[in-house]
Design a protein that fits this description.
Elements: E1 3-5, E2 12-14, E3 17-19, H1 28-41, E4 45-47, H2 56-64, E5 76-81, E6 83-84, E7 87-88, H3 92-106, E8 111-116, H4 125-137, E9 141-147, H5 151-160, E10 167-171, H6 178-184, H7 200-206, E11 210-214, H8 233-246, H9 250-259, E12 266-269, H10 274-281, H11 290-299
This protein binds NADP nicotinamide-adenine-dinucleotide phosphate.
NADP nicotinamide-adenine-dinucleotide phosphate (NAP) is lined by residues 19-22, 47, 147-148, 169, 214-218, 225, 227-228, 251, 268-273, 276.
């Protein structure tokens, strides 16, 4: 498994992460097998959020790993806060309270990275900075990131933060690739040219911010997977055809496509299936060619000028 540094920090992790959103309803034994498989395959970054299963994902994770042991520093754990019922909350009090609750549920003393989950337009960056400083000084959080944020929102935060943002987690897959599409279709009068997120891909590259790709094999907003889906026949045929050259299947290739981008994108897989997880991890060491990357892109119905 290849490794990357998150942003420009000294936090080094596997280039593929395991997302724990879907482990909330799983039996302890199945969670145990999933996490052990991830560790055996070399995955070292585990992604959480306080809202996954209303906290149950963090509880389930904390039950299968002893996060008070000396092995705690062998893995990187991140979680997110800021989403509440019907609103977003980046107030100092709420951030502080959320982290305490996350640590309790995971049964650990610290988070490696805390992410602000979705932008809160009522955010006061000075307040966030205060909360972050307190969290670092008390040893509860090592580093900070955001999720679903645009470049100006990150710059606004960074103006006040002592520890700058090192990760931005965004939805990104072969089918949901607007941040890539707009850079390929600059100034064209087609949908693909619409810059929906203020050139977030280029901004993150310029500022050494790791993009973590959430829902790497979903299409739409949780509409299902595009893998083996008849709606994406051409894409699946292409992934299978190119995968055969590397001795892997379409699942592995969907990840190899994300990893080929020089932005060092880190896919966050949400699989709960051990066999699929092993297939996904094979992508870590595969480097597809430039031509193959574009062939896959076009097979998803994307057009080039
Ligand atoms: N920051 C955010 O706003 C945000 C939002 C959503 C998610 N996330 C993070 O991103 C992680 C990944 O998200 P995700 O779970 O949506 O990602 P995903 O890996 O694209 O989707 C996983 C789902 O797709 C299914 N799947 C995958 N391959 C399949 C196949 N070949 N056939 C049938 N089903 C297949 C999985 O089923 P199996 O379990 O059976 O494999 C699972 O239900 C989450 O765990 C979370 O950590 C972040």
């Amino acid at each position: 498994m290849k490794s990357i540094n998150i942003g420009n920090s000294n936090v080094e992790t596997s280039n593929i992460a395991l997302g724990c959103m879907r482990i909330a309803n799983m039996e302890k034994d199945s969670v145990d097998k999933l996490i052990k498989t991830a560790l055996d395959e070399g995955i070292t970054l585990f992604d959480h959020a306080d809202i996954y299963g209303k906290g149950q994902s963090e509880i389930n994770f904390g039950k299968v790993l002893d996060l008070k042991s000396s092995k705690r520093d062998e893995i990187v754990i991140q979680s997110k806060c800021g989403i509440r019922a019907g609103f977003f909350d980046f107030s100092k009090e709420y951030i502080m309270e959320s982290v305490d609750n996350i640590l309790k549920r995971l049964n650990t003393d610290y988070l490696d990275i805390l992410l602000l989950h979705r932008p809160d337009t009522l955010m006061e960056p000075e307040e966030v900075a205060e909360a972050f400083s307190l969290l670092v000084n008390s040893g509860k959080v090592r580093k900070f990131g955001v999720s679903n944020h645009n470049p100006m929102q990150i710059q606004l935060l960074n103006k006040y933060l002592e520890d700058k943002i090192i990760v931005n987690q965004l939805q990104l897959s072969i089918t949901n690739s607007s941040m890539i599409d707009c850079g390929l279709n600059v100034n064209m009068e087609i949908d693909g040219s619409i810059n929906r997120d203020d050139s977030v891909l280029e901004f993150c590259r310029l500022n050494d911010i790791t993009i973590q790709a959430w829902s790497p094999v979903q299409y739409g907003f949780f509409e299902g997977t595009f893998l083996n889906n008849p709606k994406f026949k051409e894409l699946n045929e292409k992934l299978t055809e190119i995968g055969a050259r590397y001795g892997v299947n379409n699942n592995t290739m969907a990840y190899a496509w994300l990893l080929r981008h020089p932005a060092k994108i880190q896919p966050v897989t949400g699989t709960t299936n051990i066999e699929r997880l092993k297939e996904i991890c094979k992508a870590s060491d595969i480097k597809i060619t430039r031509e193959e990357w574009y062939e896959i892109y076009r097979s998803a119905g994307k057009v080039l000028p």
